[in-house]
Design goal:
This protein has 184 residues and is mainly α. 61% of the residues lie in helices and 5% in strands. It contains 11 helices and 3 strands, in the order αααβααββαααααα. It has a 3-stranded antiparallel sheet. β2 and β3 form a beta hairpin. α6 crosses α11 and α10 crosses α11. The longest helix has 28 residues. The radius of gyration is 22 Å and the shape is flat.
């Protein structure tokens, strides 16, 4: 193989590598919503609060038994998936004891922002931003580019303020989400 052929082979290899890297990044963006949904689940299940109330690291079974008081029995496999994703994102930590016992989960500087009864919490904002009414406008962005207009109005037929004034539950969720950010 002469030097030109070697150069072409290297360029081809870099091109394949760049192509695969691009594909991997697109997959990452496609499933980026899963991080938000896992955070929402952690807030709704009060996982950070459960860990803190136990005074430190606890097992998955202990977390599960504290969700809804353990009744009905939570799906521990689904909980494990959520925790695995949140551990990978450094929201929680996991420690595997050397004696082969059950792994234990603990809080991180990120998960402390998920606590419900903390002065510094983003739990209400996470619930607000992941509410279906606030997710729906994201599906209207291309329509807004083509036609102009406001995404929330395109998704719901009215402004956000009209939705909030007509729905006390959404109004409370929205106000709680906004209020939690004013405490920083």
């Amino acid at each position: 193989m002469n030097s030109l052929e070697k150069e072409e082979e290297i360029e081809k290899g870099e091109s394949v590598e760049a192509t695969l890297q691009g594909q991997a990044e697109i997959w990452q963006y496609m499933f980026g919503f899963a991080d938000s949904m896992a955070l929402k689940s952690a807030v709704e299940l009060k996982i950070a609060d459960i860990i803190r109330s136990h005074g430190g690291a606890i097992t998955l079974s202990q977390i599960a038994s504290s969700i809804n008081g353990g009744s009905p029995s939570p799906d521990i496999t689904c909980l494990a998936r959520i925790m695995r994703l949140l551990v990978r994102r450094n929201v929680f930590t996991i420690h595997h004891p050397s004696n082969g016992g059950d792994a234990v989960y603990d809080l991180t500087h990120l998960s402390k922002w998920l606590l419900h009864d903390s002065d510094l919490t983003l739990a209400p904002m996470i619930l607000m931003e992941n509410h279906p009414w606030l997710l729906a406008p994201w599906h209207c962005f291309s329509q807004c580019v083509k036609e102009g207009g406001v995404a929330f109005k395109k998704a719901h037929g009215c402004e956000i303020w009209d939705s909030a004034s007509g729905n006390p539950e959404f109004n409370r969720l929205f106000n709680d989400g906004m209020a939690c950010t004013s405490r920083f």
